[in-house]
Amino acid sequence: MENYYEILGVNQTASQEEIKKAYRKKAVEHHPDKGGDETIFKKISEAYETIGDETKRAQYDNQRNNPFGNFAGGDPFDAFSSFFSNMGNQQRQRRAPDKIINISVGVVDSFTEKQMNINFSRKTACNPCNGQGGERLTCNTCNGQGSITQRVGNSFFANIVRTTCNSCQGRGFTFKTTCHVCHGDGRNDEFKTIDFKLPHGITDGQFIRAQGMGDYHDGIFGDAILKINIVPQNGFEKSDNDLIYNYEMKIDEFNNESINVPHPKGDLSLKLPEVIDTTKPLRVRGYGFNSADFYVKLFVKHKRG
């Protein structure tokens, strides 16, 4: 995906007014009528058409932050290994319910694209009864449909109403005998593992879909949906794409010219301002998520006496 911010020469956090000014400057500089390159000019126009509009910009930012989000179906992430696939190209006539798995991801792990290993329990087909739950008999009441259609009303006005069959509770069958292992459920518990690499900057509330890794239901496996919950880690926090570190400052450090603070890419030496104001964080441009900024909040802790 083209980086429209780089094309226009602005930061991702730029205001709409800053984007407009940058576009005008670039458009004049590269306009074909003034000897500019037509290809570059088209890219500049395409970039402004997208991020120059607030609604289109929000959609574009979401796609940039979701490197696996360009498929029909609307899920932010989809595909990390052979069982992760593009759901927009694989439509199934029948779908089992999705299994939601909540995953806590540390801020640093999100930044460093950590390799994750998720263990969970899911429902699988019972082997003794082959997922049938026992010996089945077609329901005589609904003839295996699971529902009953009735005509309600009189000769002048009538509605066709479909209701769940009470005899089989909508399953379309009853049991002659039930499986002694699953007691008619057709499923047993099993443990599975999902291995995947976190995309850089994955955010709170986003999803990763693992096709076919959910619970067994009515002859097929559903998908497992990993719901991401970003949590503070080792003093680091995340705000949009900005990375934040809470630094506990010692009294004797106030006389130093600089302080060393940790960062996922390696420790940084930051020059202290002449007037230290702990209400204002130190800022390092470009060291946050997706080239956003890194902020260091200063806290003072001192024991008297």
Give an account of the 3D structure.
- The chain is α+β, with helices and mostly antiparallel strands and 305 residues long.
- It has four domains: 4-65, DnaJ domain (Helix Hairpins, Orthogonal Bundle), CATH 1.10.287; 77-123 and 189-231, Sandwich (HSP40/DNAj peptide-binding domain); 134-178, no CATH class; 236-300, HSP40/DNAj peptide-binding domain.
- The chain is 17% helix and 34% strand.
- It contains five helices and 18 strands.
- The chain has helices at residues 4-8, 16-30, 38-51, 54-65, 107-112; strands at 77-78, 99-106, 115-125, 134-138, 147-153, 158-164, 173-178, 187-197, 207-210, 216-217, 220-221, 224-231, 236-239, 242-249, 258-261, 268-271, 282-284, 294-300.
- It has a four-stranded mixed sheet. A four-stranded mixed sheet has the order 13-14-18-17, with no helix packed on it.
- α2 (16-30) runs antiparallel to α3.
- The longest helix has 15 residues, at 16-30.
- It is extended.
- The N and C termini lie far apart (59 Å).
- Residues 67-92 have low confidence and may be disordered.
List the helices and strands and how they pair.
Blueprint: H1 4-8, H2 16-30, H3 38-51, H4 54-65, E1 77-78, E2 99-106, H5 107-112, E3 115-125, E4 134-138, E5 147-153, E6 158-164, E7 173-178, E8 187-197, E9 207-210, E10 216-217, E11 220-221, E12 224-231, E13 236-239, E14 242-249, E15 258-261, E16 268-271, E17 282-284, E18 294-300
Parallel strand pairs: 1-9, 2-12, 14-18
Antiparallel strand pairs: 3-8, 4-7, 5-6, 9-12, 10-11, 13-14, 15-16, 17-18
